[in-house]
Design brief:
Elements: H1 2-21, H2 29-75, H3 86-93, H4 97-100, H5 106-118, E1 120-124, E2 139-143, E3 169-173, E4 181-188, E5 193-197, E6 200-203, E7 206-207, E8 210-212, E9 216-218, E10 223-232, E11 235-241, E12 261-264, E13 267-271, E14 276-280, H6 290-293, E15 296-297, E16 301-310, E17 319-320
Antiparallel strand pairs: 1-2, 2-16, 3-4, 3-16, 4-14, 5-6, 5-13, 6-7, 8-10, 9-10, 10-11, 12-13, 14-15, 16-17
Helix pairs in contact: 2-3, 2-5
Organism: Ottowia thiooxydans
Catalytic activity: Cleavage of hydrophobic, N-terminal signal or leader sequences from secreted and periplasmic proteins
Domain Peptidase S26: 99-309
């Protein structure tokens, strides 16, 4: 019964993962990992309190029967009785495959679940919207506790962390499609008046300092762009601007609190509502961000990106970033 039931459970996980991989469904990795933790945990408990004691009892019975047989033979004067039950005992004590693939994996899955849910989560940069700060192919780590811990799957905040600040690079669930993760830089926090007009950033009426640097060559586009050091808060970061692109924001979606934004041929100005953030990519003219699809709710924020831990095309990319 248990081997058949386990085969069905494992087939269900494989079917879900396969359907997600081939685009047949929108997968939820956090939910999948949570279910895997629960299922393997139940098997682990059953192994510890039911199946393992049964196997130990069976092994003890076997040993008792062997001792009884040897005692009877000894009473008849036979001291060197043949037969070794050690191999049979090992077979009795061995975990069957359906426990090895469930209870045996539970400790590893639990550690991954806890680390991913409450400590760090890895992501891969799929696009060039954060160039020059992050390049396509960068593998980054996101701090899950800086802004406060959240319950996995439910995304309910359970601790108060540091407030999200202007200039932070955050990973968040894309508001129009929460199953997709995005990464951008926070430009405006609740209450800020953010203006990006003629490719110049102003926050609460104060121009953000931009210091021009050498032109930046984007290898993904094989093109040079204007480079600036921009300062939001206490730290500087790089941005690039395409001087051939218009400042006009075209193709704007309908989104919640759109009435807080004013669009013109010069760009856009927005008042950031409470509990939301205005985000933009450092690749200012090649980034689908808050200018197009609106504000990021606080509940959508996954964590703060802070480290490139690997880039297989360029190992020099490894390290922290602003």
């Amino acid at each position: 019964m248990m081997p058949f039931l386990t085969a069905i459970v494992l087939a269900g996980f494989v079917a879900y993962a396969g359907s997600w991989y081939f685009g047949m469904i929108e997968g939820n990795f956090a939910l999948l990992l949570f279910l895997a933790t629960v299922v393997t945990g139940l098997y682990w408990l059953a192994e510890r309190f039911i199946f393992l004691p049964r196997r130990r009892a069976a092994a003890k019975t076997l040993e008792g029967q062997d001792e009884s047989r040897r005692a009877k033979l000894a009473a008849q004067g036979i001291q060197d009785a043949d037969g070794d039950v050690s191999t049979a005992r090992e077979r009795i004590m061995a975990q069957p495959w359906w426990l090895d693939w469930t209870a045996g994996l539970f400790p590893v899955i639990l550690i991954v679940f806890l680390l991913r849910s409450f400590v760090f989560e890895p992501f891969k940069i799929p696009s060039g919207s954060m160039i020059p700060t992050l390049l396509i192919g960068d593998l980054i780590l996101v701090n899950k506790f800086t802004y406060g811990l959240k319950l996995p799957v439910l995304n309910t905040r359970i601790t108060q962390g540091n407030p999200i600040q202007s200039g932070d690079v955050v990973v968040f669930r894309y508001p129009p499609k929460p199953s997709v993760d995005y990464i951008k830089r926070v430009i405006g926090v609740p209450g800020d008046e953010v203006s990006y007009l003629n490719k110049k950033l102003t926050i609460n009426g104060k121009p953000v300092v931009q210091t021009p640097g050498s032109d930046f060559f984007d290898e993904s586009m094989m093109k040079y762009y204007q480079y600036f050091d921009e300062q939001l808060g206490v730290k500087k970061h790089g941005i690039i601007v395409d001087e051939t692109r218009s400042a006009f924001v075209s193709g704007v979606d309908d989104f919640k609190f759109k009435q807080n934004c004013r669009y013109s041929v010069e760009g856009v100005s927005c008042k950031v509502p409470e509990g939301h953030y205005f985000v933009m990519g450092d690749n200012r003219d090649n980034s689908a961000d808050s200018r197009y699809w609106g504000f990021v709710p606080d509940g959508n924020v996954v964590g703060k990106a802070f480290l490139v831990w690997m880039n297989f095309s360029d190992l020099k990319r490894i390290g922290a970033f602003n």
